[in-house]
Design goal:
6 strands
């Protein structure tokens, strides 16, 4: 057996809205030879890693002992991949956002080159890792939604603006906000959904006509925009907004009732991030 176990395959709910943007990868989860299937997806693409090496997936055992994961990817193009949900979702994000993952890898490798492997990552590497593992992308054409989220104004971010949120499985040209999971650890956690699961959210401002694009074209454009943003990012972890994933409109049936958001243990008040602004403004 060289693929996900049957129990792991059963854990993936491909009808979950937070997986809508990678749902075309559903067949990969059942591949008897997952590594070969992942690499087949790269055939004919120009996907590269942080140092411009052609992207490919390799068994975890091929990572030399003592060599840093991110540095190995940048230097060789090979992404060490275990046959588990965590690494499967990571591979799906490499396939969906290749430019952004390459820039993240580049910046992680730069940190390793300058500072080496330390007992603690430091602020920059920690922020890059948070993005890689637990980020969600809030794409908005209405800046008020992003501003409300930064202000912990759950009512205006998620309730009053509910009609403006896109359903990932039935995209609308007149929508003004949509959320895409990016972090592979976040996706793994959501295989067992809990109200308290929270994403480190990156807010992206786009033109209204972005929502008129077909889903695949949306993602292609988003990858290019996001890669540029991460390349220019000053790597401040305070640029993230906390967002309980099950509070996203269309993500969980119970949140159609406004009282869902009354749980202050999950939808907490917090101070405004005064020094940050919505990306792309």
């Amino acid at each position: 057996m060289s693929g996900l176990s049957e129990s792991e395959q059963r854990q993936i709910d491909w009808h979950a809205p937070w997986l809508a943007h990678i749902s075309e990868r559903a067949e990969l989860a059942g591949s008897a030879d997952l590594m070969a299937a992942l690499n087949q997806c790269l055939a004919g693409t120009s996907s590269v890693t942080g140092a411009g090496k052609p992207l490919h997936f390799i068994p975890q055992d091929d990572l030399p002992e003592g060599e840093a994961y991110e540095a190995h990817i940048a230097a060789t193009g090979g992404v060490p991949t275990r046959l588990n949900l965590h690494d499967f979702f990571n591979a799906c994000i490499w396939l969906t956002f290749p430019k952004t993952k390459a820039v993240l890898n580049q910046r992680q490798a730069e940190q390793l080159k300058h500072f080496g492997v330390q007992h603690t990552r430091g602020m920059a590497r920690d922020a890059l890792t948070l993005f890689d593992e637990n980020a969600a992308l809030l794409v908005v054409s209405d800046p008020h939604i992003g501003h409300a989220l930064r202000a912990f104004d759950w009512h205006h971010a998620l309730i009053a603006s509910r009609v403006d949120w896109d359903d990932p499985f039935t995209p609308r040209a007149d929508a003004k906000a949509v959320l895409h999971a990016f972090g592979h650890a976040l996706m793994e956690k959501l295989t067992a959904p809990r109200k308290a699961i929270c994403a480190h959210t990156w807010v992206m401002q786009v033109d209204a006509d972005w929502f008129s694009l077909p889903p695949a074209a949306r993602l292609l454009a988003l990858d290019a925009i996001l890669a540029q943003q991460i390349q220019a990012w000053d790597i401040n972890p305070r640029d993230f907004c906390p967002l309980p994933m099950l509070g996203v409109p269309h993500f969980w049936a119970d949140n159609a009732d406004e009282t869902f958001y009354n749980d202050e243990r999950v939808f907490r008040s917090g101070r405004m991030r005064l020094q940050t602004s919505t990306q792309g403004e």
